[in-house]
């Protein structure tokens, strides 16, 4: 732009202009006028029904409304513009096929056509979503979805997940599933276990994103408690009492079966087979105490366990005799399906060092958190180890590391992931795997890891054939 300006700019103190205070007052008056107009329309036309040209009847109630406003709804727009019988009627009886819809929800949904803003009560949001979906009010549907995303907690998550599937809110469904993956194991709840359906629990247990605390055995324990509550929903004790109650209940049922029949193969237990099938048993039977508990419980079919014992035995022989030094490339599908899931809660800032229990094929992995660093160390000779230790010069692991913090409702405050990586370590070598920024250090801090200690058997067979 160039040339002389013909725009007259107002300057303070010159006649003909308005002061900044006057401009601000004019804006306020205009806003008040708009608000009062909207309020007048809502009060006069909707609440009072003045100049109504159509009556809508539903669930024993009647609304005196206006076609011009109703046409904002896709449902009524199609009704009035087509060759439907109702298009020429001045009283329409609505059939309400959805049991979630009630009179209060219809009142809010119809009222939304006469006003700019709707305040949504989270306790009423599912009923309102149902009404908005039937009336095809896209803006209100979206607003319901956003309200639900902001109010996901232990009491709402299951109903929100189911509603998201019913009314096609894919982003809400994804958000609810993420909340469950993060909170199922980190913030266990009797009420949540009762609400989780078989299909939803199957999705959670099969996911590599399940935030596990501490090791895979804890997933089995959580499933045992969940299955007990599904079978005895009237039980109302505390979370601390739940495991002993579940163990006692299943122990009594064990005597009712023929020798060799597990609970999951019984009539009562067969409904849960699909969920338990997604347990990563290879990381449960790799710990002696855990393997003994699984055998004692008699929940898992013997055939499943025999197959896993064989699988683990061959993996151990490959590591010991075939010099399997671990994964050499990232296979995301294999990591997601077969990795060991484990985690740790750091209650407050400080120095921590730990190892996750289990037979890790001679790779004794020490994890250290100190000075905002997370360090992996391959312990060979420096520190005592209760299990066997590999003396191979180099060993590799595939892993993914995630850190998160939650607010009081289980919502993520912050999260960080290192992504899938291959780490090769020499004897007693350590490596920084994550450097945390101070803004991420909101405690308690939850750490989740996925590990693969051995390479895929199928890939090694293919390599052997090529050689």
TrEMBL record:
Name recorded for this polypeptide: BTB domain-containing protein
Domain of life: Eukaryota
GO cellular component terms listed in the entry, alphabetical order: nuclear matrix
Native source organism of the sequence: Varanus komodoensis (Komodo dragon)
Subcellular location field: Nucleus matrix
Matches recorded under SUPFAM superfamilies: POZ domain
Stretches assigned to the BTB domain: 52-122
Keywords assigned by UniProt, alphabetized: Developmental protein, Differentiation, Nucleus, Spermatogenesis
PROSITE patterns, sorted: BTB (PS50097)
InterPro entries documented for this protein: BACK (IPR011705), BTB/POZ_dom (IPR000210), Gcl-like (IPR043380), SKP1/BTB/POZ_sf (IPR011333)
UniProt GO BP: germ cell development; spermatogenesis
Lineage: Eukaryota, Metazoa, Chordata, Craniata, Vertebrata
Region Disordered, residue ranges: 1-23
Pfam families according to UniProt: BACK (PF07707), BTB (PF00651)
CDD domains, A to Z: BACK_GCL (cd18495), BTB_POZ_GCL (cd18305)
């Amino acid at each position: 732009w160039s040339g002389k300006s013909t725009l007259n700019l107002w300057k303070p103190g010159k006649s003909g202009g308005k002061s900044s205070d006057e401009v601000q007052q004019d804006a306020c008056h205009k806003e008040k006028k708009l608000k009062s107009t909207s309020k007048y329309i809502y009060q006069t036309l909707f609440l009072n029904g003045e100049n109504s040209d159509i009556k809508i009847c539903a669930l024993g109630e009647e609304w005196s409304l206006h076609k011009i406003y109703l046409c904002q709804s896709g449902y009524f727009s199609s009704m009035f513009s087509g060759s439907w019988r109702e298009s020429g009627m001045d009283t329409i009886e609505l059939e309400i096929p959805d049991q979630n819809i009630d009179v209060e929800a219809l009142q809010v949904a119809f009222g939304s056509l006469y006003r700019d803003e709707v305040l949504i009560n989270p306790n009423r949001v599912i009923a309102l979503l149902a009404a908005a979906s039937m009336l095809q009010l896209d803006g209100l549907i979206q607003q319901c979805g956003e309200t639900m995303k902001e109010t996901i907690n232990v009491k709402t998550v299951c109903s929100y997940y189911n509603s998201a599937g019913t009314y096609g809110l894919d982003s809400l469904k994804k958000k609810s599933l993420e909340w469950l993956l993060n909170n199922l194991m980190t913030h266990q709840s009797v009420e949540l276990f009762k609400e989780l359906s078989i299909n939803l629990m199957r999705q959670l247990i099969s996911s590599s994103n399940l935030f596990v605390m501490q090791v895979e055995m804890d997933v089995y324990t959580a499933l045992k408690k969940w299955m007990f509550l599904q079978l005895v929903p009237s039980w109302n004790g505390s979370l601390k009492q739940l495991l002993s109650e579940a163990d006692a209940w299943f122990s009594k049922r064990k005597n009712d079966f023929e020798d060799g029949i597990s609970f999951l193969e019984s009539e009562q237990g067969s409904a849960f087979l699909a969920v338990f099938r997604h347990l990563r048993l290879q990381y449960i039977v790799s710990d002696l105490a855990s393997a003994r508990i699984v055998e004692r419980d008699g929940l898992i079919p013997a055939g499943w366990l025999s197959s896993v014992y064989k699988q683990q035995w061959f993996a151990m022989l490959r590591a010991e005799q075939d010099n399997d030094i671990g994964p050499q490339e990232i296979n995301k599908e294999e990591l997601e399906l077969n990795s060991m899931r484990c985690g740790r809660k750091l209650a407050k800032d400080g120095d921590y060092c730990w190892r996750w229990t289990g037979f890790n094929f001679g790779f004794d992995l020490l994890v250290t958190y100190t000075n905002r660093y997370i360090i992996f160390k391959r312990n060979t000779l420096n520190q005592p180890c209760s299990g066997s230790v590999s003396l191979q010069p180099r060993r590799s692991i595939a892993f993914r590391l995630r850190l998160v913090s939650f607010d009081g409702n289980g919502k993520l405050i912050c999260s960080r992931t290192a992504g899938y990586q291959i780490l090769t370590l020499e004897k007693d070598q350590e490596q920084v795997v994550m450097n945390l920024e101070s803004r991420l250090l909101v405690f308690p801090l939850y750490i989740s890891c996925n590990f693969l200690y051995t390479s895929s058997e199928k890939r090694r067979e293919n390599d052997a054939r090529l050689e």
